[in-house]
Design a protein that fits this description.
With 361 residues, the chain is α/β, with parallel strands linked by helices. The protein is built from 13 helices and 13 strands. The chain has an 8-stranded parallel barrel, surrounded by 5 helices. The protein has a 3-stranded antiparallel β-sheet with strand order 5-6-11, with no helix packed on it. Strands 1-2 form a two-stranded antiparallel sheet.
Length: 361
């Protein structure tokens, strides 16, 4: 954590969590548009090392550290986040039509647990506004994905229509598309984990993708709350459909071992309590797929050691959200520097050599 963030974090933590996020987002927008300031911030934070480069499905990532969906709902923070040194940014979740999400308060910090609980409920400006933001972004040297979902009031039997509409609108403007079937905050959404429903959805999306002049990699974001048999069914359905990656994992409904009085709040839990369980899910998927398609690991990453162990468990890329709330804007730089040291310490010449070594062993 930088000295600057250690000074302002207590002030931010006095605010409602969503209010603090909104102020942070505004600061990122202002910073990205100010003359010379982005160049200065990039000089401070955008440290890179060739050992960290990752290639996936025709995309080249300067480093594996990305921003998870949920931080940038509107795709209008890409330029601000890019100068902090992230290798990719996943915008969304995006719904076809604008929707406000659940009533506030709906985002809660659990400092005792280094965690967040959110029940945002896919608050989204809609696909038209996100398409406009993606066209307007200036940073073209960072990979941008879009995470898509369904509107709350769309019946589950018509969910495919929502995913198709958003995919058609946004896939040509993004580097990859993530399919969110695993948020706990949209009623019934996780029923799309059921194999028949999932196969129907993925079959239609992959059909549309093949028709694009330049097909995009499709990633499937999975829940951490599935049983081993349910997880295997999801993985098999994804592999059969030819998806390009699994994102493991979304937030959890579990509340084991929490200390905060806010643990009783409903919604999805993210942050430090997920570290070990997410790593287990990453390892389970890696064992099933032997690394093809790869895993993008998200959940409980605060330090370089967290990231390194996710990679050793089978993640080729990683994503952060809650960790940034607690560690501040230098988190990408600090994780990258720590990863590079650990890789060389352990005799690896590239990050990809370390992927899954814990499972393979």
């Amino acid at each position: 954590m930088t000295l600057f963030y250690s000074l302002i974090r207590p002030l931010l933590f006095r605010l409602d969590a969503e209010r603090a996020h909104d102020l942070t987002a505004k600061a990122l927008r202002v910073t990205s548009r100010a003359p010379l300031l982005p160049r200065l911030i990039r000089a401070l934070y955008a440290w890179e090392d060739p050992i960290l480069a990752v290639d996936w499905s025709g995309l080249h990532f300067a480093n594996p550290v990305g921003v998870a969906a949920g931080f940038d709902k509107c795709a209008d923070l890409v330029d601000g986040l890019a100068v902090l040194g992230f290798g990719h940014i996943e915008a969304g979740t995006v719904t076809p039509r604008p929707q406000p999400g659940n009533p506030r308060p709906r985002l809660f910090r659990l400092p005792e647990d280094a965690a967040l609980i959110n029940r945002l409920g896919f608050n989204s400006p809609g696909m038209v506004a996100v398409a406009r933001a993606l066209r307007a972004r200036r940073s073209r040297d960072v990979i941008v994905g879009v995470n898509i979902g369904k509107n709350r009031d769309t019946p589950l039997e018509r969910a495919v229509e929502d995913y198709v509409a958003t995919f058609v609108a946004l896939a040509p403007l993004a580097d990859y598309v993530a399919v969110n079937i695993s948020s706990p905050n949209t009623p019934g959404l996780r029923r799309l984990h059921e194999r028949a429903a999932l196969e129907t959805l993925l079959r239609e999306l992959t059909r549309l993708n093949r028709a694009l002049p330049h097909p995009r990699p499709i990633a499937l974001k999975v829940s951490p709350d599935e049983t081993p048999d349910q997880l295997e069914a999801v993985v098999r359905a994804g592999c059969d459909a030819g998806i390009a990656a699994f994102i493991a994992t979304n937030t959890t409904l579990a509340r084991d071992g929490l200390h905060s009085r806010l643990a009783i709040e409903t919604g999805g839990l993210s942050g430090r309590p997920l570290t070990q369980h997410t790593r287990q899910v990453i390892g389970a998927i890696y064992r099933m797929t032997h690394g093809t398609p790869p895993v993008i690991g998200v959940g409980g990453i605060v330090t370089a050691e967290d990231a390194y162990q996710h990679i050793r468990a089978g993640a080729r890329l990683i994503q952060i959200y809650t960790g940034m709330v607690y560690a501040g804007p230098a988190i990408a730089r600090d994780i990258k520097q720590g990863l590079a040291r650990r890789l060389r310490r352990d005799g690896f010449t590239s990050l990809e050599e370390a992927v899954g070594v814990m499972v393979a062993a």
